[in-house]
TrEMBL record:
Name assigned to this protein: Nitroreductase
The organism of origin for this protein: Mycolicibacterium holsaticum
UniProt xrefs under InterPro entries: Nitroreductase (IPR029479), Nitroreductase-like (IPR000415)
Pfam families: Nitroreductase
Keyword annotations of the record: Oxidoreductase
Transmembrane domains' residue ranges: none
GO molecular function, a single term: oxidoreductase activity
Start and end residues of each Nitroreductase domain: 12-190
CDD domains: Nitro_FMN_reductase
Gene3D superfamilies: NADH Oxidase (3.40.109.10)
UniProt record similarity statement: Belongs to the nitroreductase family.
Amino acid sequence: MDLYNVMRSTFAVREFTGDPLPDHVLVRILDNARFAPSGGNRQGNRVIAVRDHQTRESLIECTIPGTKRYIAQLRNGESPWNPLQPTAVDEETIAAVEVPTASPLRGADVVLVVCVDLGVVAAFDQHLDRVGLIAGASVYPFVWNILLAARNEGYGGVLTTAAVAQEPRVRELLAIPDHYAVAALLPLGKPTRQLTKLSRRPVSEIATKERFDGEPLRA
């Protein structure tokens, strides 16, 4: 496919047909995705391809606490898990939330658990008084390349992170070393439908000239 078409039609796929995603296609997806940049070209990414249903059910269990809080905060009019806006929802209310039983981690043909070696990332923002972001530059381009490559092959997936709230459980389940962080869980498979037109804000609303408060960037 044309690169721009792939970029404009790669959406969050959460429902799958059940058709197989064979290992040889998965290897081709990762073989192309691995050319994503990383800090110092250290390439600290690791992927665990999980097909076992019992293991996936355990991963789904790891997503539940974070999802409960997410839903409770939404119902309370909050921005879920936002570091600038602490939640006003109490733990009892969060615990009482019913989580939908459907999960893309269950319906996908394979779930990729993407990790990054914290020993090779450069976290330039580690001393700033805010949540850290910069270390993700060494792993999330790779994650997005996987989704773009999957779209090019006629498959799809979604970047999920709810399980990371229970990272120690995920690490124990999959024997992930302590110095690796879990960056994303990517359920992949054949989508039940393929969107061809996505809704996004125009460039003039997200880009400005010279300063944050500068003139909108237009063609």
